[in-house]
Amino acid sequence: MLYTLTNGTYTAQVDSLGAQLVSLKGPDGFEALWTGKPEYWREHAPVLFPIVGALRENRAKIDGQWVEMNRHGFAKRSEFALQSQGEGTLSLRLTPTEATRACYPFDFALTVTYTLTDTGYTTAFTVENTGDKPLPFVVGGHPGFNIPVGEEASFEEYVIRFEQPETQKCPVIQADSCLIDPTQTAYTLENQREIPLRHELFYNDALVFEGLRSTWVQVVHPATGKGVEMDFSQFPMLGIWSAKNDGPYVCLEPWTGCATLTTEGDDFAQKKGMQLLPQGEKKDYAFTVKLL
Asked: Where are the alpha helices (DSSP H) in 92-233?
């Protein structure tokens, strides 16, 4: 089911399948969110849970048993139920099904809440452990944004701009396995705030950042100031991605964890960034998008 929400400034649409934001328009009518053109990338802003990225050979061990799970988890392929809806806000909730239990044998509730603001929107995740054992999970966002932003400009005129100068070594994501190899470097930042945007940055998959000093990142046209800004301060990792087929969009992806590392094993609970939520507890994360 498709839900529409508005706050008088922005209008958004959210699909209950995957609790995915599929449209975001401001006063000028420009579609800020990636439109899902299949020749580039079919999705818009998938919710990533209970993993981000890939498992080795799409499987891992939970309590000594092998389970299979596709890249980025099952939430983006699951039907969410309406929890609440108000002016400019919507909450959708996912609880276990026979299909989720087959690959993730835990009792949980995942609530995704979208709230429109004066300058864009906020996405909030609430993960609850409704079972009787610790709940391992990773959660993340994957929104794509149309670039260029409603103007006569090219993709290459934009820059990725961080709040503060950053020094980073982005690890390689292996093309065949989609695992992260922390022993190899795909891109290096040396006390820099900006990365010139170009399609070649993503020909070997996403740029993966960890432990950034910055709390926000922009994809922005330096001359006009047009673009998008994301506050990802509650997330320890950030992915920036576009498909290697030169699509006119960029995804800004706040993560609590990442794909399996080539240097780690296959125990689900021991994956990098995995949270272990105690029985009866819940954890909240949120990121905010501002249209510039």
From this structure: 98-103
Question: What is the distance between the alpha carbons of residues 100 and 67, in angstroms, rounded to a whole number?
Answer: 11
Residue 200 phi, psi (nearest 5): -65, -20
* Alpha-carbon separation of residue 290 from 15, 49, 99 (angstroms): 21, 24, 36
Checking if the pLDDT of 151 tops 80, the result is no
What global pTM score does this model have?
Answer: 0.96
pLDDT digits (tens, 9 = 90+) for 258-280: 999 999 999 999 999 999 999 99
Distinct helix (H) and strand (E) counts, the chain = 1, 22
What values do phi and psi take at 102, rounded to 5? Answer: -65, -30
Determine the Cα–Cα distance for residues 154 and 226; give it in Å rounded to an integer.
Answer: 12
With CA atoms as reference, report the closest residue to 204 among 236, 175, 247, 166.
Answer: 175
Q: Is 157 helix (H, G, I), strand (E, B) or coil?
A: helix
First vs last Cα of the chain: how many Å apart? 30
